[in-house]
Amino acid sequence: MTPVLSVRDLAKRFGAVVAAENISIDIAAGHKVSLIGANGAGKTTFVNMVTGYLRPDGGTIELEGRDLARRPPREVARLGISRSFQIPQLFIELTAAENLIVAITATEGDRLSALAPAEAGHRREHALDLLGRFGLADQAGRPISELPGGVRKLIDIAMALARRPKLLLLDEPTSGVAAEEKFTAMDRVVHAVATEAATIVFVEHDMDIVSRYADRVIAFYSGRILADGAPPDVLNDPDVRRHVTGSAR
Question: In angstroms, how far apart are the furthest CA atoms of the chain?
């Protein structure tokens, strides 16, 4: 079966800094894959290349067999890859529902000449359905400026999911979420994504989240893959403990 994402020999340098070297990864449909590594290890560079925000110096990126390596972000998104950001990218003057409507309208390729006409019909229904799947139906009419960081994070992810992607890339989905709410928030994310049958790749520094939700963990170090496998195997790998989790014994 063709992987959802197939990356071969991906390379990227910034001057003398090696951000990615010989990165080769296949990701199967339906999996939940976590990327871990210290700051500067190459995780975000990898995500930026897959989503078209950075052009690789070498290698190939394929989504279900279609080459993505030289396509711009808008085209990558149209072909089936969406992403959320560590800092939510929202319209703070609009309500939660209106933000989703903007995302849905953009996905459908229509011009956003005015928000009010876009609110009619199926777009508003879709927006409210998405908010409900994230447990945020009661926040639909509230402006983003009034909402706490954890709720903003979920709305940002909901906007990425509005595209009905094949692959969803999440940059630290629990950052900005209160510690006592992180599992609830991630439960909502996993449930909502499952309803769309999307594959998840998420960058995460919280090893509790990684061990609880990932099917597979890929550890990055100095632009290379240090370990790749089941969470217990990777998180107990001596090199990962030394260079990533800081728990070497």
Answer: 61
